[in-house]
Each structure stands twice: as C-alpha cells, then as structure tokens.
Write a structure and sequence with these properties.
Elements (H helix, E strand, L loop, with lengths): L2 E4 L3 E8 L11 E8 L1 H10 L6 E7 L2 H12 L7 E4 L4 E7 L5 E7 L6 H15 L2 E5 L4 H13 L4 E4 L3 H4 L11 E5 H7 L9 H15 L3 E5 L5 E5 L4 E4 L12 H14 L4 H16 L23
Parallel strand pairs: 1-4, 1-8, 2-6, 4-5, 8-9, 9-10, 10-11
Antiparallel strand pairs: 2-3, 6-7, 11-12, 12-13
Helix pairs in contact: 1-8, 3-4, 8-9
C-alpha cells in the first residue's frame, strides 16, 4: 500500500491582490478554489513522486467531493478507504499579499471521527501492508490512539504533521511515539512555549537539539521559510538545510510538500539530513507555481534508489 496518509480534505479558497495588498482596505484581485488540506496535499505530493500512497479520509457526498476523488485517482492515490458523508470536508479561506506570502486565514474543520470505523474494519489490512504511516497530529485523540496502537502492532514508522498546533500542543506525549515530527518556526514556539521568531538557523538548531532530548521526541524538523530548516534527533544528529533560492509565486502547500519529501526519504532509507534535503527540493518546486502540490518527479531524481511503485 506504500505510504498510508491519514487526515482531512479541505477546500482552499485563496485571494490574490492585483496590486499592493492593503490589510484594512478593499483589494481588487482574483479568487481561486483549490483542493486542499494538509494530508490531502501530502498524499498527492507522494503520488507525484510515483510512490502510490493510500489515503484514509472523508469527503462530501457532493459533486465537489467527487471531484476531489477524481483528481486523487488521476494521480494514482489509493482512495478505497475514503468515506463520502455530508459536510465531510473542511474549508480554508486565505488571503495573500502581492509578494505571495500569506496575509491572513480562517479555517473551518470537519469531523474526522468517521475514520474510526475505517480503522476498526480495515486497520489490520492497511497497517500490515503499509511502508509507513503519516498522521495529522491534531485529529481527535481517540483516532490518534487507534493509529498509534495499529502502528505499534505492525511495527510501522509514524510521521506526524499538524494543521492546528494549538490542538496538537495538548498531545505532547504522542510526539514521543512518532519517528519524526515536522512543523514551522512559529509552531515550534507554540509547542515549546517560547518565541523563536527572531532566531537564526544556527541558534534554533541548538535549541531544537536540546528540546528533542528533554522532550524525548525521536526526531524533529523545524522549517524557517526562506532561511531553510533545522533538524535534530535523540541520537545526537542535528543540522541546517538552506532553502533553495527560487522565484516565489505562492507559498501555499510548500510546508506540506516539504513534509512529504521528508516522509519519503525516511521511509525509503535516507538519513534525517538527506530526507530534509528531499523535502527542501519538493517545497521549492511548489512555491514557484500557484498549485498546492509538487509537479511530477521520478524517485531517482530525488536521490532514491528505487523505481516508481506500480
């Protein structure tokens, strides 16, 4: 089943100004509707590296939900375990400034608990055949416990990403069970109750190395936008990976693509440093377009010693 991704589907409504963005004024521009959601993006990113992930999620039982499934199937994501229910998808409303950076957003979450039925009925089949597991760390705690129980039963690696850190902060103990957790600089500050907004990579790297040891977090990566990312694990490995210098068009989905690259690397034998570089490459490919996901790659283009999964 390749990498199994468990999380929500969103519809992203994105606004782009035609000229300089005025925060407290009316801005003329364009509005786009795009399939989104952290884990939906991650599943499609993994599929675009020809690795055939399985996605466990929920969509609306509507034309829009059918459109989401059609696109995922076209990218060869395994969608057998996606349920169709009323109001199954969340919504993310975002406004960007004239530099392509996020100026503000509001999200409406969907109820993910129907996934529990999928895990109860098909969890053993799914987890026993998975190469690794991706989980959205801010899902309902009972869902999280079920995922971790199945992963432990079948000795599968778990990689965690978050869409709402304020919820994930309440589950710090679960981070001790993941093989790698990825978040951005602001989210790391929320997690560790500190302000890292002015930290430079070298300083944040040392802080992170200490924090993963104290918190018993197996491995963690913190992205820092245009400055790159830092990583550390409990084995004493730590370092900095610079961002690639590219023309920024839209930063939406870059963090998800970064996470997908890290997950791919760590699932298929790369070191933490090498996986961080793969994530950096995928993130760079996203921010140069208005798409939420990366373009097509072959595994060997990213340094993986494997052919596409059929």
């Amino acid at each position: 089943m390749g990498i199994v991704v468990i999380g929500a589907v969103f519809v992203d409504i994105k606004g782009f100004p035609d000229d300089a963005y005025i925060p407290d004024g009316r801005n003329v521009g364009r509005i786009e509707y795009i399939h989104g959601g952290v884990c939906r993006n991650v599943a499609e990113d993994i599929a675009n590296v020809e690795l055939r992930p399985t996605f466990i999620s929920i969509v609306d039982n509507s034309a829009l939900g059918a459109d989401v499934l059609k696109k995922l199937n076209n990218h060869r994501v395994d969608t057998r375990f996606i349920q169709k229910i009323p109001s199954g998808m969340g919504t993310w409303l975002a406004v960007f400034d004239n530099h392509g950076d996020l100026a503000g957003s509001i999200s409406q979450r969907s109820d993910m608990m129907p996934i529990m039925k999928i895990l109860e009925e098909n969890g053993d089949e799914i987890f026993s055949q998975a190469d690794s597991i991706v989980v959205q760390a801010d899902m309902h705690k009972d869902l999280m416990k079920k995922v971790f129980a199945l992963a432990d039963k079948y000795k599968k690696k778990i990689f965690a990403i978050v869409s709402n850190m304020s919820i994930a902060v309440e589950r710090r103990d679960l981070l001790q069970k993941v093989d790698c957790f990825v978040c951005n600089q602001l989210e790391a500050g929320m997690l560790f109750a500190d302000d890292y907004s002015e930290k430079e990579p070298a300083e944040l790297c040392e802080i992170l190395a200490e924090r993963v040891m104290l918190g018993k977090i197996p491995a963690m990566i913190v992205t820092m936008g245009g400055k790159g990312s830092v990583y550390a694990d409990m084995k004493g490995n730590k370092g900095f990976c610079p961002a690639r210098q590219v023309m920024v068009k839209d930063t939406t989905g870059a963090g998800d693509a970064f996470f997908a690259g890290v997950t791919i690397g760590l699932t298929y034998g790369k070191t933490l440093a090498e996986a961080t570089q793969i994530g950096t490459n995928l993130a760079a490919s996203v921010i140069t377009s208005s798409e939420n996901v990366c373009p097509r790659f072959l595994p060997r283009e990213l340094g993986l010693d494997m052919d596409p999964i059929e």
